[in-house]
Amino acid sequence: MDTQIAPDGHLEVLSKAEVARLWDTSHGGLYQLFRSCALAVLNCGSGLDDGKELLERYKSFDISIVQRERGIKLDVKAAPASAFVDGVMIKGIQEHLFAVLRDILFIDGEILKNAHIDLETTEGVTDAVFHILRNANLLQPQISPNLVVCWGGHSISGHEYDYTKLVGYHLGLRAMDICTGCGPGAMKGPMKGATIGHAKQRIENGRYLGVSEPGIIAAEAPNPIVNDLVILPDIEKRLEAFVRMAHAIVVFPGGAGTAEEILYLLGILLHPDNAQLPFPVIFTGPASAEEYFQQIDQFIATTLGAEAQSKYKIIIDDPVAVAREVQAGIKTVRAYRKLHGDAYYYNWLLKIDREFQHPFAPTHANMRGLALHKNQPAHLLAANLRRAFSGVVAGNVKDQGIRAIEQFGHFEICGDPDIMHAMDVLLNSFVQQTRMKLPGKAYIPCYKVIK
What we know:
By secondary structure, the protein is an alpha/beta fold. The protein has 16 helices and 14 strands. The strands form four sheets. The protein has a seven-stranded parallel β-sheet, with helices on both faces. Helix 3 crosses helix 15. The N and C termini lie far apart (50 Å). This is AMP nucleosidase. It is an enzyme of class 3 (hydrolase). Its EC number is 3.2.2.4. Pfam families: DUF4478, Lysine_decarbox, PpnN_C.
């Protein structure tokens, strides 16, 4: 469908110079990035999780910027019909479109081209993430800690999805706000449940934050419940945004992307500088997911050891216990940050090693060259394991990764035999449980574990 839309909530007031810059940008190198992200937003709820297939299915889709004295309009051509109701674009999708435009322009102009932000240093990256989140109005200094980040797969069973809603509901009853990767499945369920909990408690300003990045947005298009969306420039900054904003993290069942998130978080928490820092982490799912978490726990034990296992709790089939554990953990976080003078809205004290910040390009050479052995500190092994799973995600759903697999064949993953065996077992379990792709599609592995 075709339409023109004006901003409402983002970019309402622009100078002539800003309008001119937007026009220049739409015809420059950023346009294809904006087009692909915009298409993913418009394709919300389609059941498609393949970036390459999405771009090829909507080859005639186009979006351009119309200059006006009062600001801008977006001229949208051949957009997915699911984004409209009776010929009018859904309000939440409109907001997400302008959020994408806001973030792409801000990152290009104020982060990547800013001489005062050095992305080659840990402090520079952390500052960059802070500025992107602040520009998107996601940092709220007047709110007591209550933000729960929920991770989990976009391809989960209906039973598991219902469980995520129950957990979200009990978190909402306790006035917790929700932040997720903003897609379907375990990213939508907690938000949906929390809306009911908030409504029952007459909480009218509940926050449902969605955090994404250009490479993953096609596979995890923002669900309509998200009322604050932000696009980070890459997966590493997206992950840092999660852990800097989070007051607690709840992990539901998922696939390679969820394993990547878990390894990222555990690698950070294993850093010696974070040994005393409270950070509530709970793995949870219905009774049917008990075996899944046993497999995750066994993988962590084999690769990272008992100290890593001590950084999380596993609670099976008890949403109330999860919510109470989160609530108690956040009280500890609040007391710690108050004692040490850290901000409630951005965890500055958290030490993130440069190995977790440097963008990883999942090329065939880089995947083969990963240091997957135990002759290194545990937090650095976690960083490399995270990269391996990031490559699997890229080969599964990202446009660039899928094309690389088509051209050069499988990613090869090699390392210590015991680590390779554990990884092979875990990845095979994801395949057998249909956690790699949405149901209805035969999964063809993009990787080969070399034992």
